[in-house]
């Protein structure tokens, strides 16, 4: 196996990890809303708008390992990361309720799950987007060499 093949396999593994994490996150969000009947708030919908296309973009990038997958997926991952960061700050009470986008329907601070007092739904989304964005930055750096 040549050095180029090893580099290609490592890049593909990074992209596969992104795809796997995006799939798990998307299925988790669908599980919470469709099976557990947790109604998503406005910010959850915005996060889904960023997350669901990532599953398709990563899927298409995996088949032929298209290097442009980073160019299309990284902006979505970063936008999703900023929305989830805002959601977590709102959930933690750091951002005042007067500027919440959830004025109608389900509150953005609704406490559906809280594992160990840390892992809420917004925190799980922040972790997911953080890992995906970090892996995409690593992949971008490796591809630019």
List the helices and strands and how they pair.
Layout: H1 3-35, H2 42-64, H3 69-91, H4 121-144
Helix pairs in contact: 1-2, 1-4, 2-3, 3-4
Can you give the helix content as a percent range? over 70%
Biggest β-sheet description: none
Order of helices and strands: HHHH
The beta-strand count equals 0
Tally of helical runs: 4
Unreliable stretches covering 5 or more consecutive residues: none
**Quick one: overall form?**
elongated
Alpha-carbon distance between the termini?
A: 20 Å
What's the average pLDDT?
89
Radius of gyration: 17 Å
Name the beta content range: under 5%
Structural class: mainly alpha
List keywords for this structure.
145 residues, mainly alpha, 0% strand
Report on the structure:
The protein is an all-alpha fold. The mean pLDDT is 89. It has helices at 3-35, 42-64, 69-91, 121-144.
